[in-house]
Amino acid sequence: MLTEMAETERKYEAARGAVLPELGDLPGVAAESGPDEQHLVAEYFDTPDLRLIRSGITLRRRRGGDDAGWHLKLPAGGDTRIEIRAPLGRAARRVPAELAALVRACARGEELQPVARIETARLRRRLLDESGSSLAEVVADAVAAQALGDATALSSWHEVEVELTGGDSRLLRAADQRLREAGFRPAGHQAKLERALADRLPPAGRSPALTAESPAADVVLAYVAAQLTALTTLDPMVRRGVPDSVHRMRVATRRLRSTLKSFGMVLRRDQAGQAVAELKWLGEVLGAARDAEVLAARLETAVAELPPELVIGPVQAIIRGHMAPIEAAAGTEVLAALDSGRYLELLRQLDMLLAEPPLGPQADQPGGIVLPKAVRRTRRRLHRRMRRAWAAPAGADRDIALHEARKAAKDARYAAEAASPVLARKTARRLISSARDVQSVLGDHHDAVVARGVLRDLGVQAHLAGENSFTFGILHERERVRAMALEEPAGRAWHRVGRHGG
User: Fold this and answer.
1) Which domain CATH number covers 256?
2) Whole-model pTM?
3) pLDDT class for 201, splitting at 50, 70, 90?
C-alpha cells in the first residue's frame, strides 16, 4: 500500500556545532517543541549510471524515525517534491514493485541497486501554532555517507532542513531569512544523495544560450531533449492517475514526433523513421485514453446543460454506462503500453538519437537561416489543407479535411516552438499563438463531430431497446450546430497564421 504526500523543504549548509537562531517568533508560530533525537539509516537505490538522481529522483529504504520505510521522491518544482512511501518490508535489497514501476521509464528498465548508505544523527524541533499543530520541522543533521560500488568513498557534513508540515510559503520565507541572517547558506543540493555521490555526478550548470548563429542541430536537439525529459517525468504521473497527465504526456509525444518529421534537413528522416513510427503508436494509445475522458465529460456536461423537461429517460446513466468501460479499457491499455518492452525500446531509441544524432545536410548551418525555412514549410502545409477543407462540400468530407488541417496546425505550432530560440521573439510568439488557436478551434470542431457519432449510436440503441431517444436527438443537433458555428472562427484563426508567419 503506497501513501503519497507533498514535501516542501529547504536545506542549508551548517558548520559543526552551529547554533540555530530563535524561530519561535516567526509568523503564525506560537510555540516550539523538542529537540528530539533521531538516528536514521538509509540505503539509496539507483541504476549503475545514476539515472534517478541525475533526474532529481531519490529512492531509499530508511530505518529509524517516525517514517521508516521505502521513500520515493519525485521533483514537483521549486522547493517541493512528491514523496511516495511503501512499508519497510523484509526484503532489504529488493525495491517494491509499485515503486520500481514508477521509475521504470527514468531507469530505462535498468536494475536498481544500492549506491549509497547514509546515516544521520538528527535533532528535530517542531514549530507549532496556537492549537499545538505542527507548522514546520527544523532539523539539524550530522550526516555520514558511504558511496557504494566499485569504489567506496566516505564523506560527512552538517546541514539544516526546514520542512513545512502545515505552514505556508510565508513561514518558509521567514525561516529562510532568519537562517540567512544567522549565517546559514542554502545548500547546493536538494537531496543528501547528491552530496554523497558528488564526484560521480556531472557538475551543475546551464546549457549555452541558443542564438541565431547556433547550429540548427543544436536548436532542434535541445527541443527534442526537453520533450523527452517531459515524457519521462510524466510517466509516473500517468501511472498514479494525476489529473491531466495523460494529456500532457500525449502532447510531449506529439511534439517529439512532429519535430522529427518537420526538420528533415537537420535530422535525417530515414534514420529517425523508426522512432517516429513508435511515437505515433504511443500517441495513439495515450490519445484513446484522453479522447475517451474528454468525450465522457463533454456528453455529461451537455446533458446537464439541457432544461430538465428535455431530458427524457435515464440519459446520463446510459452515457455513463457506455463511456465507463471505454475509459477503463483505454486506461488499462495505457498502463500496458508503459509496462511494455516496446515503450522502453522507444525511450532508448530517443536516447540514442540525442547521443548520436542522424545529422542531415543542414545540421551545421546557422539555425537562424535553416529553421525559419522549415517553419514556413509547415505553415504552407497548413494553408494547403485549410484551402482544401473550405473547398470540400459541407458535411463528412469537410469534417475530415478540417481534422487533417488541425494536424497541420499542430505541426506548425510545434515547429515554431522548436525554432523559437532563433526566430524573432514577436514573430515566434504570434505564430505559436495563432497556430494554437487554429488547433484549438478545430479540436473543438472534431470533438463535436465525434460526439455526434456517439450520440447517434446511443440514440439508435435506446430506440431498439424500447426507450425514448428524443434527448439524444436534441444533443446530436446541438453538436451539429456547434460544429458549424466553429467553422467561421477557424477561418479567422487560419488567416492570423498567414499574417504572423514571418
Assistant:
1) 1.40.20.10
2) 0.91
3) confident
